[in-house]
Amino acid sequence: APLATLIPTLVDKLARLAKGARTTIPMMIRGETGTGKELVAQAIHAASQRTGDLVAVNCGAIATSLLESELFGHKRGAFSGAADDRLGLVRSADRGTLFLDEIAELPVTAQAALLRVLQEGEVTPVGADRPIRVDVRIVCATHRDLAARVTDGLFREDLFARLAGVTFELPPLRDRRADLAAIVGVLLQRLDAPPDLRFTAAAARWLYRYSWPRNVRELERALAGALAACDDEVDLEHLPVDAAPPRVTRAAKLSPEDVALRDRIGASLETHGGNITAVARELGKDRTQIRRWMRRLGLERP
Hints:
Distance between the termini: 30 Å
Mean pLDDT: 88
Helix content: 40-55%
Number of helices: 13
Strand content: 5-15%
């Protein structure tokens, strides 16, 4: 679903991503939680035609004390409880793809060992005295600003440089209104929705107006709930319309400066018939900034 798009710029980025997938260059996927980064990693692995498995690792879900053993394996007797030899996740991805989700959460102690995997193509299990060769392609994902974490000393600069061979930014769902119908269609197929399922105008309008702060993951849950509650037509009563108000239709309490800005942008929108490019030109700002202000101030196009 995250790869279904009608946005020309995203089509171009996906084409470059597919080209990079056929190499062994490490790839980094950036995007908010729930945008579908793991599905992009699956697509990269499929396009790579590597014969090994795709092994997914959530770097923030492994206890720090067990991290090196989980990633790099261990020899029997290496520590209390190590009753058998264990390959580890890196060697399990040999000739395949290792997907490191939430790479920003990887402790500094494990970053050096991962750097060795990238530089030398080898891994040393805990308790072993010799490294073992491994052929693994690294794909990582994060919703954090890794460059900022490098500046703060929380992430190794040399590892960051190695991981960011090809970087792909997956936009949030609120910035992909043109793709919403296509993504809904893919998700409905996945959820085994009846082929004659319909949406009322009110329900469809809400789907487009809601900001989807938890992205595709939230949309899939909303559709699953609607399918469980309706027969052959989805209406507002079947959707979680009270879960969180659309940010584009309501604004928090505004300061006098924000009220003045809202009035100015609103007047410009009326003048230009909702043309955001013209509004941005009049105000001397970027289109993205105008959209950001509109969401925060509760403005809609006329």
